[in-house]
């Protein structure tokens, strides 16, 4: 009998293709690997458990198989490291967060400078030297910018007013101090620039809405598909680039000119673009298109690292506050005292005195509830101190719940909200430690954490002084989960003048 392609029924094809993928995709493990959790269905592996029941699933694995262990998700073996092993990963040079995020968040496709490894290095240096070290000098400006948002966007609330937070989780609030610090006082007055900063991450992420189904074949296939629109000329962030360039160029030119005229008498403004003017002096005296691209890339990379991360935690902290009436008086009392002391003009000393608020913020960050996060790519085969080995190319995820809900550190009910824990143990919100990994750990720990915590504290201080803040239900609202990742609740918050 002659068999044409058409006579082979579809289901046979499906079977053949599935079996072929299965053969290709059968998880390959090297010698001495952490235990691979057994699973029922080939290819699918633990994908369903990991997406829909991560907390219980990982807790069960951890209990039966210890730390670390391997799971099989979207066609890839991932190694999960918990409380005992995570610190090893963060101390080693073998792991890279930026390489791990390339596939799932291909920002380098639109910000080409990210392809140059020196970009991240100089960016981290600029954050350390230009933001963290100068934080006290920025306090007044941050306060002004945050108040600008509060007065304009929340405003007078003689009656309870429901503010929708789901649309941007206060990204347009945090965009203001970030813009002030990055591009300076002059440009940050411009509402178009603020909007470009606030929307950038969301607009870029709009191309990532496709779930990584194609990663079952290979993660690269997924990356190729999600970046297709970019290759066809659709660039959701181009308009933000144009806005920034338009406002930035004349300011850079002005500064360069002043520098030339004034020489040693030039008084450098305090902001991150001043870093670039210094650079420019050495390289060239004219601002070229290539130079503008470089500096805009640099600024938007920082925007992606700093705005949504911070605003999401601010939003979450406000929900934590609003849902816990028992904490209101104590925190309000501290803010009123510091407000009187500072006469409404905060300095960094005043921010440092907000110890109750700091402890509250730390607790909100600890209980944010991301189950497993911070992907890191293993860049060379790596052997843990316990002798287990993982191969080059493996993605390692940090089991944050295991670290943040540790009973030795946080007592018998580690999941309860312990507002005084940081204060009583003298650990500020910006300090990483072995049971607090929200900012990572070791030499790559988030360089922006001091800035982020300051923004959250100043923002909350001002909001608590001005308003009663409640949740619609009067209780703690539920967070939204995307697989093992958490997002703040979306019910909205009720503001009313004090
Ligand atoms: C509450 C807000 C924030 C959270 C939760 C957060 C979290 C993190 C985490 C978990 C890491 C990885 C650390 C590691 O690998 O050990 C990281 C890295 C980083 N963060 Fe943040 N971050 C926040 C705000 C910021 C801000 C405001 C900036 C910039 C001003 C920033 C810039 C960076 C940079 C540049 C890195 C890469 C560091 C490196 O690779 O050495 N972050 N952040
Ligand atoms: C520019 O050159 C001067 C003198 O050669 C040097 O001191 C300075 O560090 C350089 N600046 C940068 C940003 O490279
Ligand atoms: C909590 O963390 C510490 C330090 O990492 C560790 O020594 C201890 O065993 C952990 N406790 C539990 C119950 O896992």
Report on the architecture of this protein.
The chain is an alpha+beta fold. The protein has one domain (28-497): Cytochrome p450. It is 53% helix and 9% strand. It has helices spanning 10-25, 47-52, 54-65, 86-91, 97-104, 117-132, 135-154, 171-187, 191-205, 219-226, 228-231, 238-262, 273-283, 289-322, 328-342, 348-353, 355-366, 400-404, 407-410, 421-424, 449-466; strands at residues 69-73, 76-81, 95-96, 161-163, 373-378, 382-383, 389-390, 395-398, 467-470, 480-482, 485-487, 493-497. It has a five-stranded mixed β-sheet. It has a three-stranded antiparallel β-sheet with strand order 4-12-9. Strands 6-7 form a two-stranded antiparallel ribbon. β10 and β11 (485-487) form a beta hairpin. The mean pLDDT is 92. Residues 83, 406-409, 434-435 line the site of one 2-acetamido-2-deoxy-beta-D-glucopyranose. Protoporphyrin IX containing FE (HEM) binds at residues 90, 97, 123-124, 127, 131, 302, 305-306, 309-310, 313, 374, 438-442, 444-449, 451-452.
């Amino acid at each position: 009998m002659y068999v044409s392609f058409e006579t082979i029924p579809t289901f046979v094809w499906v079977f053949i293709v599935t079996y072929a993928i299965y053969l290709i995709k059968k998880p390959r493990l090297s010698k001495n690997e952490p235990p691979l959790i057994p699973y029922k269905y080939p290819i699918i592996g633990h994908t369903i458990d990991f997406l829909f029941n991560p907390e219980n699933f990982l807790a069960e694995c951890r209990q039966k198989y210890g730390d670390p262990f391997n799971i099989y998700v979207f066609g890839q073996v991932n190694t999960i490291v918990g409380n005992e092993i995570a610190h090893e990963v963060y101390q080693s040079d073998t792991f890279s967060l930026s390489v791990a995020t390339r596939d799932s968040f291909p920002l380098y496709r639109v910000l080409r400078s990210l392809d140059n490894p020196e970009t991240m290095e100089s960016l981290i240096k600029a954050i350390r030297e230009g933001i963290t070290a100068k934080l006290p000098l920025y306090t007044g400006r941050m306060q002004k910018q945050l108040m600008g948002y509060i007065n304009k966007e929340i405003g007078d609330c003689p009656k309870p007013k429901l503010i929708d937070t789901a649309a941007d989780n206060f990204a347009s609030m945090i965009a203001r101090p970030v813009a002030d610090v990055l591009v300076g006082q002059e440009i940050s007055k411009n509402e178009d620039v603020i909007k470009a900063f606030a929307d950038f991450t969301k607009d870029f992420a709009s191309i990532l809405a496709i779930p990584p189904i194609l990663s079952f074949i290979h993660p690269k296939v997924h990356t190729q598909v999600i970046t297709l629109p970019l290759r066809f000329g659709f660039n959701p962030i181009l308009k933000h680039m144009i806005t920034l360039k338009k406002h930035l160029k004349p300011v850079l030119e002005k500064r360069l000119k002043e520098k030339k005229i004034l020489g040693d008498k030039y008084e450098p403004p305090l902001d991150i673009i001043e870093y670039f003017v210094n650079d420019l002096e050495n390289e060239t005296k004219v601002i070229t298109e290539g130079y503008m691209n470089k500096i805009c890339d640099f600024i938007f990379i920082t925007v992606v690292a700093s705005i949504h991360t911070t605003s999401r935690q601010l939003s979450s902290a406000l929900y934590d506050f609003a849902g816990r009436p028992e904490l209101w008086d104590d925190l309000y009392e501290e803010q009123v005292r510091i407000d009187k002391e500072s006469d409404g003009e905060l300095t960094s000393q005043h921010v440092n005195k907000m110890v109750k608020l700091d402890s509250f913020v730390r607790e909100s960050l600890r209980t944010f509830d991301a189950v497993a996060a911070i992907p890191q790519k293993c860049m060379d085969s790596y052997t843990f101190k316990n002798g287990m080995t993982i191969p080059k190319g493996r993605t390692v995820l940090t089991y944050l719940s295991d670290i943040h809900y540790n009973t030795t550190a946080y007592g018998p009910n580690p999941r309860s909200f312990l507002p005084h824990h940081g204060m009583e143990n003298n650990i500020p919100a910006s300090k990483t430690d072995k049971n607090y990994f929200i900012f990572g750990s070791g030499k790559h720990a988030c360089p922006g954490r001091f800035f982020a915590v300051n923004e959250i504290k100043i923002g909350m201080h001002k909001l608590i002084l001005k308003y009663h803040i409640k949740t619609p239900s009067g209780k703690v609202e539920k967070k939204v989960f995307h697989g093992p990742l958490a997002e703040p609740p979306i019910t909205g918050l009720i503001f009313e003048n004090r």
